[in-house]
Structures are given as C-alpha cells and as structure tokens.
Write a structure and sequence with these properties.
- The chain starts with 7 loop residues before the first helix and ends in a 13-residue tail after the last helix.
- It is globular.
- The protein has one domain: Alpha-Beta Complex (Amidase signature (AS) enzymes), CATH 3.90.1300.10.
- The protein has 15 helices and 11 strands.
- By secondary structure, it is α/β, with parallel strands linked by helices.
- It has an 11-stranded mixed β-sheet.
C-alpha cells in the first residue's frame, strides 16, 4: 500500500480505525524518499531514526487508548529556516552549515504537542532569498512534475517533497510568495496566513515585517488542520496577534453562494502566460456558476509593489543578516584582523543572491539615500495596503493567478535577477498588506500545474479556506500527482 500518497486526513482515519500503524506510514514515506530523492533533492537533512521513534510513540499512545490529533503520527517536512532543537538548521547557507539550535521554534513546539513525526529539513533558497530554490548554498531542488524545471521558492524543498510523496505535509515561510508560488508550481496547496497569526519565534529572519510561516499540503482540508495546530498568540513574538483562533475545519463548507469576488485588472497584464490566464479565468467562471458574484476592481498601486518590496525586504535583510559575522556562531574564516575576518567570512559563506540583497538593502538605508529609497518604499507599502482595504469594502475575496507563468526551466532566469523577481508580481502585494492568501491547483498549462490565488481580509483565513475548499470539491486537480518514479 502506497501510504505516502494519501492525505493527512485519510491517514488519520486509517490510524484510528487501526488499519495501519504510524510506523508503517513513516516506513512508506522513507521508501518513497529512497526511490525519488536522488532525482528531486528536497532534503538538506533527514531525521530517520527520530521519525521512527516518534511514530512508535504514537502507536504506543493509540494502543493505550489515548486520543490522537489529526497530525499525530503523520510525517511532515520542515523548512530549514525553522529552528529545531538538536537538528541542524542551515537556511541552506554555508554560513550556518553546522548550526544546531539549542531551542525549538514555537511552531515546532506546537507540532510536538500534536505528536510530530518530522522527516527532516527541507531545501530552500539561501536565507529564503529567491523564487526557484536554485539559490540554495548546497544544491537545487527539482520539480517532480518535470525534473528539468524549478519547484519554485523559497520553500521549494517543502513543496517538492509534498508533491513527490516524500512527506505528507510541510511547513514553509512566505516573505513575498515563498509558500504560494512553489505550491502553484508543484500542484499542491500553500497558505500564507495573516501577518502575526502564526508565531515567528524561532524562524530565522529574512525580512521581519513580511515573513510568515504557513502550511503546504495535498489539499485544503489538510491545510486547515495544520493551521489549527500552528496558529495562535505567542508572547515570545512581539508581532503576534492576540486574537482567538477559530477551528479552521469548520470553514470547510462546499458553498460560495453570495460570495463577492474581486478581480483586479492590474493582475492580468502583458507577459502573463495565456494558458495560465485561461485556467484562472475558467476557475473564476466555475465559482460564479456555483453561486459567487464577480466584479472587476482596481488596485492602482499594484505596479509599484514589486519595486517597494525589493527595497524594503533587502533593507530588513541587511539588518537581520549583520549578525552572521563569524564571531558568535556559524562559519568563520581566518583573517589578518577582525575586519579582514568579517570580510572573508561573509564573502565566502554567503551566496550571490544573498550578497546582492544585503548590498541593495545597505545602500537603501545609507545616509543620503534613506529618504529617497527606504522611506519612499514604506509610503508605497501604505498605499498598497490601502488598495486592499478599499477593495475589501466591496468584496469578500480577491482572486488572481498565483504566478504569471508555470515553473520555468532550471538555469533559465539565473542570469537575469529582474526576470526572476517578476515571478512574484502577484504574491508580493499580499505580504506588503499583511493579509492572508492561499494557492490551490486550478489546471495545467503545457503539462505543468497552474495555481489560483485567493486573497482574504486580515484574519480572513476562514473565508479563503471556504472558497478554496468549494473550488477543490468541484474539481480533481488536487488529486492528480506527478508520475515521478513510475
């Protein structure tokens, strides 16, 4: 039985019906990793012995008649920028190649309380800077649908692992689309929660005002279940929202009657793959046929969002990454003096894209340029947020493509950073505004998956989950899988 191919909800039911054991599930996943990991390369670190022990503990719990949560014993992979006590956390960077955190991120603690079975740590773009996982300091991850293509990024290892059956669910982080875009490229579901809805404590920061942790899963139901575990207030995170957390599974209702959908004209622009646009428009027509109402809206500052993001995020990155200097922890190169040591350590251990963004950010924050660049970008961010606020006075959700194209070929855009950055044009405004967004599979273009992005009001995860669930229940795109390894 290919247990690796089931959803978390299906495996949970089989567990409580005692048709299978948690150890059998993890062994099926390990067999799948042995079969395809050499091609996909989703993992930086595997934790096999720990995972077997965690699964055995779940089986013992079940034998004692104790209740299981939906995630008990269900194998998941964790993006390698989330701190895991006693397990290497590298951020896919040579500067943290041997770093073993002394503590768990809050989300890991919450998952552990739900009998986490962790398969390992997922590959990513170094320090989450990139949209293809080609910027990993170790190796690129490949898309299970076409091994010549990227899986997206920066959570590419997480999305590829779920799509390839190397994990049942995953955690990623999303700063400008890093959960939603790889989910779209790999034909899975990716949810970026409202900023502050999930604690960032223990997430190694890229851009602190934009980063958010969220799930990557096979279907919308699993996404709701993971959110039930990881969402909530955390006093250790000063940006955490102190608000009650609903049961997200109650929003899994197959009904969009009366739902008002906004279609922003600025998101359907020149340069978009016509097949991607066709798949998205067909999905919207389906939702309308199911009872939703659709209207065109305008979000006039969308065109400035990309420019603002690539000033704000690098500025925050230049500050956050200043701590990696070879002194307290991480990699160190020997130098003639401390300044020489700093230069050699950071020059040798940071990759090209990370250095590019540090330099961009440092320049934007420097004396004489702060007002012209960083401050102006902050003002543009406010205008982008106001666009969303005004739109949500008229509509319940906003729907766009997740990305303007399907997954591109490995190496196709590495020499043109701007072309790479443009892949995030549909996702970045959501992070600037701090609102939630989910990507669900909605079709194919050239044989590769297409993602539908559903954006909600702040703390509007329930509405976007209901919309995504309704679409999913009336289609079978989420049930199709990459035919990797036969």
């Amino acid at each position: 039985m290919d247990l690796f191919a089931y959803t978390a909800r299906e495996l949970h039911q089989k567990l409580i019906d005692k048709e299978i054991t948690a150890v059998e599930i993890i062994k099926s996943v390990h067999d799948r990793i042995d079969q395809v990991e050499g091609q996909v390369k989703s993992y930086i670190t595997q934790t096999r012995e720990t995972a077997i022990a965690q699964a055995a503990a779940v089986d013992a719990k079940l034998a004692r008649g104790e209740a299981l949560t939906l995630l008990s014993g269900i194998p998941g992979i964790i993006k390698d920028n989330l701190c895991t006590k006693g397990v290497k956390t590298t951020c896919a960077s040579h500067i943290l190649e041997r770093f073993v955190p002394p503590y768990d991120a809050t989300v890991i603690e919450k998952l552990a309380a739900n009998d986490l079975v962790m398969t390992g740590k997922a590959n990513m773009d170094e320090f989450a800077m990139g949209g293809s996982t080609e910027n990993s300091g170790f190796f690129p991850t490949r898309n299970p649908w076409n091994l010549d293509c990227v899986p997206g990024g920066s959570s590419g290892g997480s999305a590829a692992a779920v799509a390839a059956g190397e994990a049942i669910w995953a955690l990623g982080s999303d700063t400008g689309g890093s959960i939603r875009q790889p989910a779209a490229y790999c034909g899975v579901v990716g949810l970026k929660p409202t900023y502050g809805r999930v604690s960032r404590y223990g997430l190694i920061a890229y851009a602190s005002s934009l980063d958010q942790i969220g799930p990557i899963t096979r279907d919308v139901t699993d996404s709701a279940h993971v959110m039930n575990v990881i969402a909530g207030y955390d006093p250790k995170d000063s940006t955490s929202i102190n608000a009650p957390v609903p049961d997200y599974t109650k929003s899994l209702v197959n009904n969009v009657k009366g739902l008002k959908i906004g279609l922003p004209k600025e998101y359907f622009v020149a340069g978009m793959d016509p097949e991607v646009e066709a798949a998205v428009r067909k999905a919207i027509e389906q939702l309308v046929a199911l009872g939703a109402e659709c209207r065109e809206i305008s979000m006039p500052h969308t065109e400035y969002a990309l420019s603002a993001y690539y000033l704000l995020a690098p500025a925050e990155a230049s500050s956050n990454l200043a701590r990696y200097d070879g002194v307290s922890f991480g990699h160190r190169e020997q130098g003639n003096d401390i300044i020489d040591m700093y230069k050699k350590t950071r020059s040798h251990a940071f990759g090209t894209e990370v250095k590019r963004r540090i330099m961009l950010g440092t320049y934007a924050l420097s004396s004489g340029y702060y007002d012209a660049y960083y401050l102006k970008a902050l003002k543009v961010r406010t205008l982008v947020k106001q666009d969303f606020d005004k739109a949500f006075e008229q509509v319940d959700v906003i729907i766009t493509p997740t990305a303007p194209t399907t997954a591109f070929k490995i190496g196709e855009k590495t020499s043109d950073p701007l072309a790479m950055y443009l892949q995030d044009v549909c996702t970045i405004p959501v992070n600037l505004a701090g609102v939630p967004g989910i990507s669900v599979p909605c079709g194919f273009a050239g044989g590769m998956p297409v993602g539908l992005q559903i954006i909600g009001k702040p703390l509007g995860e329930e509405t976007i989950l209901r919309t995504a669930y309704t679409f999913e229940q009336n289609n079978d795109y989420h049930k199709r899988s990459a035919r990797l390894g036969g």
